[in-house]
Amino acid sequence: MAEDLIQVAEEIQSTTEIKEIPIDKPLQDFHHHLSYNERIIFSAKFGDGKTYFLNKFFEVHKDEFEAIRIFPVNYQVADNKDVFELIKKDILIHLLANDLIEDEDFFDESIYAQNYLFNNGADIVFDILSDVPAVKVPAKIIQKSLKHLKKYKNGKVDSAESKRVQIENYLLKFEEDKGVAEYDVISELITRIIKSIQDKGKKKKVVLIIDDLDRIDPAHLFRILNVLTAHIDRDIILQKEIEDGVGNNKFNFDHIITVFDIENAKNIFSHLYGLKTDFPGYISKFISGKPFEYSLQNILMDYVFENLSERYGIDKNILKITKIREAIRKASVRDKIKLISGIEKEIVNCIIEEKETKFSSVNKFTCFLVLLKRLDLRIIDVFDDLLKVNKFCLFNLIGVNLYLGSDIVIGNDVIGIAVRLGSNNSNWSKITIKRHNSIVEDIEFLEDVGDIDISVLRSEVKLITNKLIAYVKL
Questions:
Q1: pLDDT, mean of residues 229-239
Q2: Locate the KAP NTPase domain: which residues (predicted)?
């Protein structure tokens, strides 16, 4: 969806000079939010441009953050218990693909031992215990122990190979095995690599982004959330890591961002566990603050309102009346952007003469009529809502076209509008008339009009609109 914005903007750039929908304010807000939250839920509805937003954010702040992004949508075929292994696999693939791993020795003695025992523990126990009950000669036990010690030393040499090779061998397991149990050595390795990036990047922060969680099976969604909150995923914590300041997040990431629609997750949670379950309490474990809620829809709506107001002089209060706002909201991204382009081209450009006054047919009220036409609305459809805004806004919107009214008298600095249909009595208000040479460009009300019968307003607006429709191209 977000990519469509740029494509559409490029298509209409020659007429509207739109290059990109601005998201500067949300980018600033998210940077502030990220600065004091370690675990973040980035909440946005499907199609709201969250991927575009995050790409833009980490592009702008590439010197401050190293973003590692994974997409669990591919985990659909995996068993729930294997999800964490797949997360580790994707993290490693990203680290390899972006040359974030240097060939250094990340393993210490305990890691070598753990690796050896993980792969050979059963053989060690079987070899030693098989002889203890039957043979009383300690020499055989010592002999077999020495044999395993030799294997261990050889294994240590093997483990000292390039960690890139170790990682590639680990990844090959996914090609050979249908399911792999959590491998603590690899978890340890990822943690140390992340720490290395942080140290060598002059305290550059490393961020894990788990995107498109809306697309995965609900059981996987909650499994991933549970896994990410369990930072201690091994039995032994190295004292050196504690001294070096290992953080509170999985694998020592500075920030973990999970991307999904919080409201959708709430509905799924209630469906799975019942309406009375405490979703806020449950979800609070996975974030260090409130979810960051982002909506491209709202940004785009504000952008449309701002541009229509600036380009064509239509008051934002009028643009935001219920029927107009909802019609704009329902429009596609492409149609939303097109709303603000080329309105004046759909008006027959000429000079209108009325009551010895000349004004252009291209003005804010005729532009408003074109906007209604594009939204498949008529003036009669929004008249009541226009009155709810206030009559002051309505008359300023009609502007120079008030010269077309029948129960309206316009002087140099005042305007009179009949209090009732056919009445000679009028309510008078002060106005400013803007002229360019002999052409009246606009009429602005300096004060609200008095108490005027709604039937008068409806009649005048209908009359003026019917006269102007001839200038709006079909």
A1: 45
A2: 41-229
